[in-house]
Design goal:
The protein is built from five helices and five strands, in the order ααβαββαβαβ. By secondary structure, it is of the alpha/beta class. The chain has a single domain, classed as Ribosomal Protein L15, Chain: K, domain 2, CATH 3.100.10. Strands 1, 2, 3, 4 and 5 form a five-stranded parallel beta sheet that branches. It starts with 7 loop residues before the first helix and ends with a strand.
């Protein structure tokens, strides 16, 4: 039995991701929509330390889930995610980085080029 998302914000985001994928012919948005359709338990939870290990300064990172605050961020990055913990937001901003909503990332980068996906 398939379950439905109950959060209207997530449902709307999934629909807009699919629409953007079709309009821009960018598979990254369709892939992200599929990942967000999964159960919340199966969505990514990524720590700051993992982002720090796999990125360099001024990278654009996409997390199809939640960013958690464990670890240290040593360089400036832009991170787009479904949700951020309070500690993660503080650490990203203290490092000079930026926390983005997924809809903001779609507007800034409609083709999805140069985006690193970390799960």
């Amino acid at each position: 039995m398939k379950t439905q998302k109950t959060n209207p914000k997530i449902t709307e985001l999934i629909m807009s991701l699919k629409e953007k994928s079709y309009q821009e012919k960018a598979a990254i948005w369709k892939d992200l929509a599929r990942k967000l359709e999964k159960s919340t338990r199966k969505q990514a939870e990524v720590n700051i330390s993992q982002i720090n290990r796999h990125t360099k300064a001024d990278d654009l990172v996409l997390v199809p889930g939640k960013v958690l605050g464990m670890g240290v961020l040593e360089h400036k990055v832009q991170i787009a995610a479904v949700n951020f913990s309070q500690k993660a937001t503080e650490k990203i901003e203290n490092a000079g980085g930026e926390c983005l909503e997924l809809s903001q990332l779609m507007e800034q980068n409609p083709k999805g080029s140069g985006v690193k996906i970390i799960e």
